[in-house]
Design goal:
The chain has 6 helices and no strands. 54% of the residues lie in helices and 0% in strands. The radius of gyration is 18 Å and the shape is extended. It is mainly α. The protein has a domain at 22-87: 434 Repressor (Amino-terminal Domain), CATH 1.10.260.40. Helix 2 (24-44) runs parallel beside helix 5 and helix 3 (48-55) packs across helix 4 (59-66).
């Protein structure tokens, strides 16, 4: 086996940004919310059908969330689902100037 030196690249903390997605921050936030929904289902040992019975949210929606198929969901819908599962969401926002925007703005 050939011994090649591997280059280590440090990520930004947002895989969607690292992959060049236009709406990376929204996708990251949705993924975090979905992970919390999955944690709540696991903590309560709820199946998707039991979660439907408790919340009124379609079992198919819980299945989509568990499979990380988040395209149909908005951030506020995911937050609403978390609320219906008995948890509350606290959001802290930090705004940083984007590197590309900062460099483009300079003369």
């Amino acid at each position: 086996m050939k011994k090649e030196k591997l280059e280590v690249v440090r990520g930004s903390g947002n895989a969607f940004r690292d992959l060049g997605h236009d709406s990376a921050d929204v996708e990251q936030f949705k993924a975090i919310l979905a992970a919390e929904i999955i944690r709540a289902l696991d903590r309560e040992r709820l199946t998707v059908r039991a979660a439907h019975g408790r919340t009124g949210i379609a079992a198919a929606d819980f299945s989509r969330i568990c499979n990380a198929d988040l395209g149909r969901f908005t951030v506020d819908r995911l937050m609403s689902i978390i609320n219906r599962l008995g948890s509350r969401v606290e959001v802290k926002v930090r705004v940083h100037r984007a590197e590309t925007a900062a460099s483009e703005a300079r003369p």
